[in-house]
Amino acid sequence: MPAKDFSHDQVMMLADLVGIPIDDADLPEVANRFASLMQELDRLRDLDLEGIEPVAIFPDPGE
Q1: CB neighbour list of residue 27: distance below 8 Å, 6 or more residues apart
Q2: Which of 45, 17, 10, 52 is nearest to 31 (CA)?
Q3: Cβ(4)–Cβ(35) under 8 Å?
Q4: CA–CA distances in Å: residue 48 to residues 2, 38, 41, 42, 51
Q5: How many CB atoms lie within 10 A of CB 23?
Q6: What are the tens digits of pLDDT across the range 2-50?
Q7: Contacts of 22 (CB under 8 A, 6+ apart)
Q8: Terminal-to-terminal C-alpha distance of the chain
């Protein structure tokens, strides 16, 4: 699914779900940045990752 413009209500709902307070004055900028981020993440779908092994970003606490 290509990135799209997200409504302010959708952005507020997502922010509420993860516990991030957003002031109404900041909402247009946050929505714009979120849409840009999603567009960049969509570009990852075009990469050929066949045969590439995943890498642990966060090591186990016991290591």
Answers
A1: 8, 11, 12
A2: 10
A3: yes
A4: 18, 19, 14, 13, 9
A5: 7
A6: 446 788 899 999 999 999 999 999 999 999 999 999 999 998 888 998 9
A7: 11, 12, 15, 30
A8: 38
